[in-house]
Each structure stands twice: as C-alpha cells, then as structure tokens.
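Fold tokens
===========
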Amino acid sequence: MPDAEMIKPYVEQKIGEMLGRDRLDYDEDGDIPIRHGSSVSFVRLFDGPAGPILRVFSPLLGELKVSRKLLARVNELNAGSTLLRFFFAQGTIFCVVDLPAQDLQPGELQQAVSAVAGTADRLDDLLKDDFGGRRMIEEDDAVKPGHGAYL
C-alpha cells in the first residue's frame, strides 16, 4: 500500500496544475496554503490508520468565544452539509474534508479544494456578521507573504 510520501508528488503536480503554478509554497506545518477571497485553505497529506489521507481545511473565523448559539450554528452547518464537516476548537470554526488518498483522482482533489475554499470564503462573512471574530484575511490586511497561491 502506498504511503503519503509516495503520493505527495502526484498531489503536488495536480494542485500545481489547478493553481497554474510550477512551484508550490508550504507553510511551517508542511501544508499547502491556498488563498480564496478572505479565506485561506490548506492541503495536508498524511498517513492515517487505513492508509494515506488528503485533508483540505480552512479556519473560517477565529478569536471567537464559545456560546450555545455558536455551537448550534456549527451543528446546523454539519446537518446541511454532505461533503464537508465543521467544528469549533480553540476559538476557531473550521471547515474540513478528508479523502482517502490512495486512489485519489484529479476531479476529487479539485472538488475538495473548491468546496472548502468556496465555502470558507462565503461563510466567513456570514458568520462574522453573527458572531464577530476574525477572518483569515481581513480587508485591512495587506497581502501576507506565505499565504500561498490564489484559487
């Protein structure tokens, strides 16, 4: 069975093609950051208990205080989603999708990245209106180095 390191060149090639880039940037955690509007999504490849996993995730909104209303909204997001899941941890709402990476097809990779990035860019504004907090990229932020390619 292939492991994450064996699949990494294929994933890098397909993400590079999707973004129109020959070289990908990595953050300090080894993730590939992809900016889309006010959101930044991250692509991570790792070995899971049943084989390699491709994880695409985005912190939607940070600097939040937990409340029943906030957790109820996260539950609503999960109830209305088929591909994505949402959770609240350490003051941040996350959107994530995990895919088995052993037989990953280019269409699956593109769908996962597009679903997370598009959802994060749309929901961060709506959630900020309701709960405050901070998006990954605020309007007053200059373009930050290390936030990767644009989708």
Notes: The longest helix spans residues 106-131. The helical segments are 4-19, 68-79, 106-131. The beta strands are 32-36, 39-48, 51-61, 85-89, 92-100, 149-150.
